[in-house]
């Protein structure tokens, strides 16, 4: 790496996020790496006759932000499908009716984003609701969480689901009091619809990725951990990198997409493991060294797997997907192939299973630096929280979830709320907490997520004083969750996460000081510039 900088940025308010929290005014870039960070005077030594000088005019600079859990494909696909995020039920039905008026008879109407607990009537919707506005087109609308879907009668017929169809393990066909089909299915039942909805092409996959990238870069994200990557998506992204069209860095969690049964899960997973680890491809833009598996559903869909019944639904514990032995069998193959493992675990039952199987694996295949992860770790039995630190398991949280989950969490969990969204309890025992948004489940805006982490409020400032505020993060912790902790969670702490000599020159310029602006303004922070490898890839108007 040259000792002469291509560019020196000076007169700024720069948070390098090194081991010691500090603030400097300048940094230097050569090629795709940082040469150093410090005072304006210290950066003088990197200037050459061709060095470009950029006056930051006091603006705040952060390392490139890392979202440790989102979905590239699903975020991009929201631009092509019916976007029903945060809409009331009647608004959604109107949008479906409009879509049907433009569609050919028999053409699928597909969308995502409904959250019934935000509706005036929070009960789950019916197929008849959709039948009224779409009698001739099959309709399939995923809940925001992705773990429940609302469909009309025609869609149920095409999926081959009748009154006599039994629930598979790990999924539910919701029913009315008389036993007839309601119109909502969860988790593994969704596979029946996935097999009849028309598939996308490779060119579609590329278009979808580019649409998602636009949104990510505008939010200051320079690396995203894709929480469930199909091989065909990875191949499309590789084409985009070869064509120099994709700029964001991707840490891919390979996953058998859809809602497979165990036979398919094991077969396709073994195919991924045979590919082996793919690290740092395309100049550190693409890595596929991890494997993700879902153990349950979501709290909003009541498919998160709990150890005891839901407090607001006696007799129902949610949906676990695999036996301990099935999970062990798949994860043993993953560990033997050297893959980092991520388990989607929302409920305390799923987190207990995750920890139990991880403990068994680590006894049989010891690894002092495994960085196994629980994706979400949302509801954890209080006695299981210390096990995360003891086993070295990383809990990956999505602070932004509290915006909507707080509306149902107390009713569904009762006293178990003490082990839910318990960020402070994890950090106090020495765990790091990488941050994410699970986009498109929630907005991919990291500053909204960090606002929720610090305030424990929604964007409207509710509840006053914060929801279980004793579990909030400090601003430094929230920022580390999107920088150094995110880098560590992907074995990339030597490459990214901070503005330090030799690291990739990923950085973000924002419109106010994250550390000193009023707390309620954190959510309003606007990204002015995003750079990946020293190249400006987003500039606000």
Summarize the structure in short:
The chain has 541 residues and is of the alpha/beta class. Helix content is 30%, strand content 21%.
How would you portray this structure in words?
By secondary structure, this protein is an alpha/beta fold. It has 19 helices and 23 strands. The strands form four sheets. A seven-stranded parallel sheet has the order 7-14-15-17-18-19-20. Strands 8-9-10-11-13-12 form a six-stranded mixed sheet. A five-stranded mixed sheet has the order 2-6-21-22-23, covered by helices on one side. Helix 8 links the parallel strand 14 and strand 15 (249-254). The mean pLDDT is 96.
Order of strands across the widest beta sheet?
7-14-15-17-18-19-20
How large is the share of residues in beta strands?
A: 15-25%
Q: Give the termini separation.
A: 33 Å
How many helix segments?
19
State the CATH class of the domain at 78-194. Alpha Beta
Q: What is the CATH topology classification name of the domain at 78-194?
A: Diaminopimelate Epimerase, Chain A, domain 1
Q: pLDDT below 50 for ≥5 consecutive residues: which ranges?
A: none
Share in helix? 25-40%
Class inferred from helices and paired strands: alpha/beta
At CATH's second level, what is the architecture of the domain at 78-194? Roll
């Amino acid at each position: 790496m040259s000792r002469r900088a291509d560019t020196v940025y000076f007169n700024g308010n720069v948070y390098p996020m090194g081991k010691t929290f500090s603030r400097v005014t300048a940094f230097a870039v050569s090629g795709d790496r940082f040469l150093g960070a410090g005072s304006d005077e210290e950066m003088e030594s990197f200037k050459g006759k061709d060095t470009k000088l950029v006056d930051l005019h006091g603006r705040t600079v952060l390392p490139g932000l890392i979202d440790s859990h989102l979905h590239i494909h699903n975020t991009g696909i929201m631009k092509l499908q019916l976007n029903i995020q945060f809409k009331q039920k009647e608004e959604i039905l109107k949008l479906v009716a409009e879509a049907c008026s433009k569609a050919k008879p028999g053409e699928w109407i597909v969308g995502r984003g409904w959250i019934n607990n935000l509706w005036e009537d929070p009960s789950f919707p019916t197929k008849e609701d959709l039948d009224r506005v779409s009698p001739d087109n099959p309709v399939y609308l995923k809940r925001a969480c992705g773990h429940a879907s609302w469909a009309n009668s025609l869609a149920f017929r095409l999926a081959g689901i009748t009154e006599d169809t039994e629930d598979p393990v790990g999924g539910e066909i919701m029913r009315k009091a008389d036993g007839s089909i309601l119109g909502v299915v969860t988790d593994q039942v969704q596979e029946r619809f996935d097999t009849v909805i028309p598939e996308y092409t490779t060119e579609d996959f590329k278009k979808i990725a580019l649409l998602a990238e636009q949104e990510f870069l505008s939010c200051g994200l320079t690396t995203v951990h894709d929480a469930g990557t199909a091989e065909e998506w990875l191949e499309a992204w590789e084409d985009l990198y070869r064509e120099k069209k994709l700029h964001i860095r991707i840490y891919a969690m390979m996953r058998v997409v859809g809602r497979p049964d165990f036979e398919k899960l094991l077969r396709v997973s073994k195919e991924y493991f045979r590919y082996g680890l793919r690290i740092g491809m395309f100049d550190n833009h693409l890595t596929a060294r991890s494997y993700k598996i879902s153990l349950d559903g979501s709290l909003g869909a009541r498919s998160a797997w709990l150890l005891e019944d839901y407090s607001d639904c006696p007799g129902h514990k949610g949906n676990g997907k695999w036996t301990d032995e099935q999970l062990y069998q798949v994860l043993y193959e993953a560990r033997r192939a050297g893959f980092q493992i991520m388990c989607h675990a929302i409920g305390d039952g799923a987190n207990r299973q995750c920890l139990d199987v991880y403990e068994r694996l680590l006894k049989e295949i010891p690894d002092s630096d495994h960085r196994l992860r629980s994706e979400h770790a949302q509801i954890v039995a209080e006695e299981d929280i210390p096990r995360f630190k003891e086993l070295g398991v990383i809990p990956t949280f999505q602070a932004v979830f509290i915006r909507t989950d707080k509306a149902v969490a107390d009713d569904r969990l009762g006293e178990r709320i003490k082990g839910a969204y318990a960020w402070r309890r994890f950090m106090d025992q020495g765990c790091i907490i990488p941050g994410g948004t699970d986009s498109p489940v929630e907005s991919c805006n990291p500053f909204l997520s960090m606002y929720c982490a610090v305030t424990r409020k929604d964007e409207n400032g509710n509840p006053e004083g914060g929801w279980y505020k004793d579990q909030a993060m400090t601003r430094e912790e929230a920022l580390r969750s999107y920088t150094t902790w995110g880098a560590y969670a992907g074995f990339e702490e030597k490459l990214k996460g901070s503005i330090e000599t030799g690291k990739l020159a990923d950085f973000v310029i924002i419109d106010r000081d994250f550390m000193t602006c009023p707390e309620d303004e954190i959510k309003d922070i606007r990204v002015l510039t995003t750079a990946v490898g020293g190249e400006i890839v987003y500039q606000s108007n």
